[in-house]
Amino acid sequence: MKKIILKSILILSVLQPSFAFAEEGEAPKTRVGPGKAVLEATMENGIRLSEKAANNLELRLSPIQRNGTITIPTAALVKFQDFYAVYRKRDGWFKMIEVEPLVTNGTSTVSSKDLKMGDEIVIENAELLRVVDLDVWGPEADACVD
Predict the structure, then answer these.
(1) Are 141 and 78 a contacting pair, CB within 8 Å?
(2) Residue 37 and residue 39: Cα distance in Å, rounded?
(3) Residue 88's closest CA among 80, 96, 100?
(4) More confidently predicted of 12 and 76
(5) Which residues belong to CATH 2.40.420.20 in the chain?
(6) What are the start-end ranges of the E strands in 10-145?
(7) What is the pTM of this model?
(8) Cβ-contact 85, 144 below 8 angstroms
(9) Count of CB atoms situated within 10 Å of the CB of 125
(10) Average pLDDT of 30-51?
């Protein structure tokens, strides 16, 4: 737990949060761009991390072998309000995807129409990616608190 907290603090200090606003569907400009942890962010694609940020997060990924379905450790699920999600990586972009998990003995089989063969799912440190995601999208993240 200490490791997660320390990584979260490190990530937040690197992201240098501010309260500037952007056009609808885009992240605030001061949080995203060259030289920042998050290089690009759009509602459609998600977030694209710098290589350094991705390495610091120590994300572990698992490839999807069959369209729409993958079995992952239950710990890889992100609980968000009243649903579950996973982080999908596609073409260098990370995006939170809502899933319907079927939990069995520490693993979850998840499915979504937004998961395709060739995508990868974050199976370790997804909670750290969630912290980055919330920071990028700014004040709207406050509305996500349970």
Answers:
(1) no
(2) 6
(3) 96
(4) 76
(5) 60-124
(6) 38-42, 46-49, 60-63, 69-73, 78-80, 83-90, 93-99, 102-104, 107-111, 120-124
(7) 0.76
(8) no
(9) 20
(10) 91
Which residue in 107, 108, 84 sits closest to 97, CA to CA? 84
Beta pairing partners, 38: 32, 49
Class at the top of the CATH hierarchy for domain 60-124: mainly beta
Q: What is the predicted pLDDT for the residue at 127?
A: 93
CA 92-131-83 angle, 5° bins: 90
CA distance readout (Å), 11 to 52, 87, 105, 134: 11, 17, 32, 12
Which tokens belong to 2?
């200490």
Q: How far apart are CA 82 and CA 84, in angstroms?
A: 7
Strand-pair partners of 63? 120
Output the average pLDDT for the chain. 82
Nearest to 57 by CA among 78, 41, 38: 38
Tokens of 11: 């990530």
